Amino acid sequence: MKSLLWVKILKVFFSLLLLNLILVSWRESTEYNVLDYGAKGDGITLNTIAINQAITDCSKHGGGTVVFPEGVYLTGTISLESNVNLYLEYGSVIRGTSDLSQYISYIPSEESRGPEHFKWNRALILGDQVENITISGPGAIDGDHVFDPEGEEGMRGPHAMLFGESRDIQVKDITWNNAANYAFMAYHLENATFSNLTFNAGWDGIHIRRGRDLKIEHCTFHTGDDAIAGGYWENMEITDNQINSSCNGIRLIMPATNLKISNCLFFGDGKFEHRSSREKMRKNMLSAIILQPGGWGKAEGMLENVSIREITIDNVDNPIMIILNEGNQGKGITIENVTATRINKSACSVESWKGGEFEDVTFKNVHIEYQGHAETELAQLVPGQPHVDARQLPCWALFARNINHLVLDGFVVDYTGTEIRPACLFENIQRIDLKKVQIEEVENIESAVFINVDMIN
């Protein structure tokens, strides 16, 4: 009996050993080391051909992982293919070459063609109509601030990464440094997750124009321009991120449906200067969250079902600004459990200007500490149409314009310094519900101005 038992044990052992050998062999057969294709991580050799050959071989054999061992890999455009993953080992860096002839561009298909021009869509890593891709590892992607005197603003070079009309994408764990334009740019992106990423310098961190089923989580942004931007999003979740910028934290320039922003920290001043400001080297953070469909040009559609919750904001010009433009409507917007300190220009605004209006806007458990400024005597009571960025408002706490139903529940605002403006200005509001509202008064100034307000509860 004992001998039979040992026979069974040995059979199980050798079966497991054989399975392990098969798995190791399979893994090795699906991994493609760029060094085996002649790439050199010396920071000097141009590796564009070698890296792309590794990707091509990987794709021809049904997909797998292209591995970058420790080293600095200078390269032009890396063209991704479906089912091919990139893995950047510890100490590995993909660095963009300063030779602009080494970059290629994404050319949108006819149905998605926009005003974007050829040079704008160049990229260090490019995915054009691809799917099932993961880019991961403890390594880094470095755009090296590649300068193009013929690029936008006479300086911008290629994006660090660009995906067009692609789906099932994961980007995780890597660090992005010195993007020559946006770190990540995308058009028509579906089912994409960005996790545990770090962004340093460059322009925008993640910029997506048209996308659905998107998630940005556990990322750290230190960007010279907007940290997260874009629009025409459907089912976008931005959660558990730390956001520092010398422009805006989250800037929506097109409509969005089912947008959730939660458990994020926004703080200024920016660690890296806003490169477009050139010699000014501006570092002040503008808005933590600015939702402005149509802010950069007409972009018709709904801003609907927006949830902003569990947010901490410190040392920015403006914490939250939501603006509708021509062809836009807003519905179902909730701002809840927000704490903002050291606000430098004006607190919050929800405003519509060119025909659209908001329905059902709620502020709940919002506490804002604003730093008053004597120069606000220059503010006009009735402002003109807004600029695309944070600006001084005719009131210091809340400006609300063209809203069907506004709820303030647990809305607390106070200020330090000197202030001469009223706290709130409500214009063209059908109904306002006030509950647990605490507003620090300015001496000899009424707390709130009401213009064409139908009902106050």
Descriptive labels:
single chain, 457 residues, mainly beta, Pectate Lyase C-like, 10-stranded parallel beta barrel, 2 helices, 30 strands, 9% helix, elongated
Query: Tally the helices: what do you get?
Result: 2
What does the overall shape look like? elongated
* Distance linking N and C termini: 87 Å
Query: CATH class, anyone?
Result: Mainly Beta
Relative helix content: under 10%
The CATH topology name reads Pectate Lyase C-like
Which architecture does the CATH hierarchy give at level 2?
Answer: 3 Solenoid
| E-strand count | 30
Strand count, sense and closure of the main sheet?
10 strands, parallel, barrel
Query: Spans of 5+ residues with little confidence (pLDDT < 50)?
Result: 21-28
Mean pLDDT: 87
- Structural class, please? mainly beta
Outline the structure in words:
The chain has 457 residues and is mainly beta. The protein has a single domain, classed as Pectate Lyase C-like (3 Solenoid). The chain has two helices and 30 strands. The protein is elongated, with a radius of gyration of 26 Å. The relative contact order is 0.06.
